[in-house]
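USER:
I wish I could look at a protein chain and see how it folds. I am handing you a single protein, as its sequence and its fold in token form. As I understand it, each token names a local backbone shape. I hope you can help me see how the letters and the tokens relate. The protein I mean follows directly.
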Amino acid sequence: MTAPAEVKQAVLQQERRYAGGAERPLGFYLGALAAYGTFASSAAVLLRRRRTRLPDRIAAADLALLAVATQQLSRTVTKDTVTSPLRAPFTRFAGRAGPGEVNEEVVAHGWAHGAGELLTCPFCLSQWVATSFVLGMVVAPRATRLVASVLALRAGSDVLQFGYAALESKVE
């Protein structure tokens, strides 16, 4: 057996041992880590080459805005009914999850299984979204605040909708 074949065999054996019979695409996870590292490093290099001045800090109000926007965008991509076509190649509809949201089961295998997990997990996707928002604050803070404000308003609207529904049910 050649060295590359031995390495591949060892990696597959490690993945099977780790998974314990479940689908755990370690290769995808490793690729996702590498992609994230490449994305963040490339952004840092590009900012350095452009001689973009980095802020000393991000203001507390901006951090709060970005936190709400990150949560809302992550949830929108991973759970909203309307964004289900993005997830459909990797998932199967498993039922309603609440107003405007769905539960989905990842049905793809291998690399696509990992992609499905990323696209159905708001916690997993939030790292990518948060990094994008922070880079946006460095490169185009006004535009980033504008987009983040729309998402924050949507989150606030969701809270008000739930509050209204709760009050309405108490009156009935």
The chain has one domain: 3-171. Residues 3-171 form one domain.
